[in-house]
Amino acid sequence: MHYTDNGNVSGIKIAYIGGGSRGWAWIFMSDLACEERISGTISLYDIDHAAAERNQKIGNHLMNRPEVKGSWQFEKADSLKEHLKDATLL
Fold it and tell me: Please, where are the H alpha helices in 1-90?
């Protein structure tokens, strides 16, 4: 995680367990899309790997829209060990 002089934070890694969620995950992605002062990676893990992969595609597609202010990369993790590696502890 990196702090800048202007109060921004980059390089955050959020480990989202249950990352295949259809309701809460999409609201979370929309909130991140509006926030330009923090950025990083969202690691999505779910026992339903296909659902996590679907949210990965949705999140990355959302971040590529021209009106989006946020800068986040969504990735699907296949194991909890991979998912939690280098996660930012808050």
Answer: 24-34, 49-63, 80-84
Q: How many CB atoms lie under 10 A from the CB of residue 11?
A: 13
Query: Whole-structure pTM over 0.85, yes or no?
Result: yes
Structure-block tokens of residue 85: 């590696």
* Angle made by CA atoms 23, 67, 70, in degrees to the nearest 5: 65
Residue 4, both tokens: 């800048």
What one-letter code names the amino acid at 49? H
Count the helix, strand and coil residues of the chain and give each as a percent rounded to the nearest 5: 35, 30, 40
pLDDT in tens, 47-81: 999 999 999 999 999 999 999 999 999 999 999 88
Give the type of residue at 26: W
Strand 2-3 to strand 71-76: parallel, antiparallel, or no bridges (unpaired)? unpaired
